[in-house]
Write a structure and sequence with these properties.
Elements lengths: L1 E2 L6 E2 L8 H17 L1 E7 L4 E2 L5 E2 L4 E4 L4 E4 L2 E4 L3 E12 L6 E8 L2 E9 L5 E7 L3 E3 L3 E9 L6 E2 L5 E8 L4
Antiparallel strand pairs: 1-2, 3-6, 3-16, 4-15, 5-14, 7-8, 8-14, 9-12, 9-13, 9-15, 9-16, 10-11, 10-14
Length: 174
């Protein structure tokens, strides 16, 4: 019986006896491989962050992850492998008078790659639920989020409702 080089799958030839356990083993190998192709992590803000008219990085304090490719670093999520990432953010800011605008930057290694803005229309709060496009990432890239009140020094980020999720899709061009 032949074995594939990459995954070690058993491939029977015309003269091989077929054992159902061989195919169950193949299924397990394929499942293990597929689950390495994508991983996800969510990072949460540990405390309130007062807004100013200058960008402040939201420093995440805890992380929930599905794999080894993620860790907290520099206030954001460090990605240990190359591939493509999709970044989702949920931000809840309150104490914003009507007319104030909350701006959010999503950054890779300190450089903004996605920016959002929303104006408060009812003088209570602003909620963002945003998803970025796919972006290429290299090993050890750090994804962060920065926020500001566009004009004023007022408002704050509510920690229980502010988080960032990164989905990593492994680069299959090997």
């Amino acid at each position: 019986m032949e074995t594939t080089t990459r995954l070690g799958l058993k491939l029977p030839g015309d003269n091989d006896l077929v054992d159902p356990a061989d195919f169950c083993g193949n299924d397990q190998m394929i499942e293990r491989y597929i689950t390495t192709l994508t991983q996800a992590a969510s990072a949460y803000a540990p405390s309130a962050l007062n807004l100013t008219n200058q960008y402040k990085t939201v420093s995440f304090g805890s992380i929930v992850k599905t794999g080894y490719a993620f860790s907290l670093s520099g206030g954001g999520i460090r990605i240990a492998e190359a591939g493509f990432a999709k970044v989702s953010v949920h931000i809840y800011a309150n104490s914003l008078p009507a007319g104030d605008a909350l701006e959010v930057d999503i950054r890779k290694n300190g450089t903004t790659f996605w920016q959002y803005s929303a104006e408060d229309s009812d003088s209570t709060y602003v909620v963002f639920d945003l998803v970025s496009r796919l972006i290429p990432v290299a090993a050890n890239d750090i994804i962060t989020m920065a926020v500001r009140n566009w004009q004023y020094v007022r408002g704050k980020i509510v920690p229980e409702s502010t988080y960032m999720t990164v989905d990593l899709y492994k680069n299959l061009n090997f």
